[in-house]
Amino acid sequence: MLQLQIKYSIFLISALFCFQNNLAQNNSKTDRIIDAGWEFQSQSEMKLRPASVPGCVHLDLLNNQIINDPYFETNEEKQAWIEMENWEYHNTFSISPKEFKNEHIELQFDGLDTEADVYLNDSLIIEANNMFRTWKLDVKSLLLLGKNKLLIRFYSPVHAYSEKLKNYPYPLPAGCEDVNIKVSPFVRKAAYHFGWDWGPRFVTCGIWRPIHLSMWNNCQINSVHCQTISRNEQKAKVKVSVEIESSSSSGTIDLMINQHSRKIKLKKGTITIQDTLYYRAEDFWWPNGSGAQILQNINIEIRNNNLTVDDYQMKFGVRTIDLIQKSDSIGTSFSFDVNGIPTFMKGANYIPQDLFLSRVSPQDYETLIMKAKNAHFNMIRVWGGGIYESDYFYDLCDKHGILIWQDFMFAGSMYPINKAFTETVLEEVSDNVKRLRNHPSIAIWCGNNEIEVAWSNWGWQKQYGWDAEASDQLWTDYNTLFKSDIPQLLSKYAPEIPYVSTSPLSNWGELANFNHSSMHYWGVWHGKEPFANFKKYVPRFMVEYGFQSFPDSITLSTAINSENMNLESDAMNKRQKSYIGNNLITKHSEALFGKANTFSEYIINSQKTQAKAYAMAIKAHRLRKGHCMGTLFWQFNDCWQGPSWSVIDYHKKGKIAYQKIKELYQPVIAFVEIIDDSVQVSVVSDLLKDIYVQLKLIGVQNNTKIDLWEQEILVHANQMQIILHEKIKKLSTSNIKLNQLRIEMKTAEGFNSSDEIDWNQ
Ligand code: BMA
To answer: Does residue 151 sit within a domain?
Structure first.
């Protein structure tokens, strides 16, 4: 009897187990984030305190009142000790019996900054060495039912890499790092954390992006790739590729791609399934100013017996993008065709919004991208000394039509390229390319910032004492990574998006170079050339140029005590990170607006001076539309309260130049120039349709205005047109000596502009 009872109980238990196991098998994939309950400590103090995840050690120290605001006064230097410590992050999380039944339980770390060992229940599971990578592994065999321990130990990159640095055969240029032991080229960590010429040095560390625990059975969607593979004026063809990972070698599943269902035979490993979707021209995605930003829903689902196993939703923009680099009568073009239309790019260079990235809020992203959209940007460059931005950033760019020039994260340095370095970099590239490639905003990948131009023009070989052999080795390694390994990976994962190995491709040293390709023109600022040179040096595509100004006094006062609100104070002086210093700002602003009586006046004059510089440059670039097909000024935003080339300060306040740029980037705009003794009026249109504009030319003599000429003109789509070229004597009957000429433009669509030029003849 007892035996029978035991048998019966065993049958019941195993039936229940089978039933539960089946349930687990049929369960859809679940994902939870391990964000609560974290604590941190330094290895030298060993005292646990509450921590925030995602976050970083500086913010945790701040929240625990161990340190004061890192951005305040000269706290940057007082807090340098933080980068010399190792920091531990501890947590426990629990696994329920139901969760434990899943076939696969994976831990995924979206971002660990940077050099870190990860322990799960005292087993070392990951040795992380790259802030930009996603680390994922199946930890089912290490998990315990109930409580599990997670420990992440972050090592000071300075300590971790100084040995490697010592053993490396050659000294390496290291961005803007300004300390004795320069480890930044060795660490795959945001270069600006080590200091840049617009921001402080805070070599922070921590869990900067979420940690997921995801559980699945049988199979899951690994990645999706959507690409517009062909397009004509009527329609476009989109290829959707879905990579499925399966742990079972038999059985079938249903794969749904936008309601289109098909049966898939499972096999162990990964399989890729493709589908084709067709869209009409009305559904195309366009950049801001060229048309609407229509996003298509792409829904992918795996089903087993009518139950969802895994699903994936995204928004996709149907568009093609081509980078045109052709030899022509003057040199080499550099321009983008979007949906086959040559598109003049207007925008700026973007830097990370903070040194401590977890405190950049969705609201911060929205404010900045809306400011870009409202100022008629259609392109932003995510610069290589920062980070691959958050998904939300690219979602907003998709939604508002801002194309992205995406650098890979390398800037102004040479790297210790060897097998291990290349391996982690290629993982980083594939993680980020797979994450970003479906965004219609991604227009171009660029290998790095300024390495080729520096190699050929900045005298590195002499400065770092490399002999021929060293130079040869470094250059070969560079070429292997940026001209072979990375493009090879891109041709596999995102062949539809153009790639250039570096920016710029041409150097500003010689006038003839402006007929070739992409350019960073730093003659004004680093070369201390006059503003008028912006007019002289117009490239085929301007990726960087700029002039500094100070942020507003309210913004500065959040970091500087009132008694130090002057140029001479240590606190203010140490905010100026460019070797050029404040003197150049003072020189130009005094020449234009006179000596400032107060510091507030100095700030305003610096901003007016910057606005003038940017206006001169943008006018010159737009007037040469055709020759020049893009203008991206340096820089859009700030990462702290300090003087910089930005037009939006750390607290998101627009500087005077922001307003000016908003006017200058309008889709249609009129400009006046004086060429010899003639007045020339031109209209530039980036619109894709013809439009009538009303133009009025006015002469100004002190406070008196004289109407000189007026006309309504049909301006052709996407062109620069010279409307008037006339000797001033023919336009003005009066003998009054004019001080200024002004062209005013109005359109029925609400575009208004006015441009003026001093008349000294
Ligand atoms: C550019 C950028 C940055 C720098 C800026 C100003 O070349 O790439 O490296 O902040 O110059 O010097």
So the answer is: yes
With 0-12 / 13-18 / 19 or more C-beta atoms within 10 angstroms meaning exposed / middle / buried, residue 739 is middle
Looking at the whole model, is its pTM more than 0.85? Answer: yes
Distance in Å, CA 73 to ligand 1 centroid: 24
Reading the block at residue 34, the tokens are: 């391990």
**Is 1 within the bounds of a domain?**
no
Question: Which residue has a Cα nearest atom 3 of ligand 1?
Answer: 197
When divided into structural domains, the chain yields a total of 4
160 and 235 in one domain?
Answer: no
Q: What is the DSSP letter of 447?
A: S
Ligand 1: lining residues by beta carbon, under 6 Å? 196-198, 412, 449-450, 520, 544, 634
Q: Do 139 and 197 share a domain, yes or no?
A: yes
**Among 544, 632, 633, 635, residue to substitute to test ligand 1 (most atoms within 8 Å of Cβ):** 544
- Which tens digit of pLDDT belongs to each residue from 585-639? 999 999 999 999 999 999 999 999 999 999 999 999 999 999 999 999 999 999 9
CATH number at residue 569: 3.20.20.80
Tell how far the Cα of 399 is from the centroid of ligand 1, in angstroms.
Answer: 28
CB atoms near residue 733 (< 10 Å):
9
End-to-end CA distance of the chain: 119
Provide the residue range defining the domain that includes 125.
34-213
- Model pLDDT for residues 250-286, shown as the tens digit of each residue: 999 999 999 899 999 999 999 999 999 999 999 999 9
528 and 499, same structural domain? Answer: yes
pLDDT digits (tens, 9 = 90+) for 708-724: 999 999 999 999 999 99
Residues 309 and 417 occupy one common structural domain: no
Same domain, 456 and 404: yes
Span from the CA of 241 to the centroid of ligand 1 (angstroms): 38
Residue range 214-218: mean pLDDT, rounded: 96
478 touches 417 (CB < 8 A): yes
Residue 176 Cα to ligand 1 middle (Å)? 9
Q: Are residues 127 and 68 in the same domain?
A: yes
- Ligand 1, from 451, 634, 637, 639: best to mutate by most atoms within 8 Å of Cβ? 634
Q: Is residue 345 within 8 Å of residue 403, measured between CB atoms?
A: yes
Atom of ligand 1 nearest to the CA of 383: 8
Map residue 186 onto helix, strand or coil.
helix
Report which ligand 1 atom has the smallest distance to the Cα of 412.
9
Residue whose CA is at the smallest distance from ligand 1 atom 6: 197
Nearest CA-CA partner of 751 in 674, 694, 681:
694
**How far, in Å, is the centroid of ligand 1 from the Cα of 549?**
15
User: Which of 609, 636, 664 is the last residue before a domain boundary?
Assistant: 664
CATH of the domain at 226: 2.60.40.10
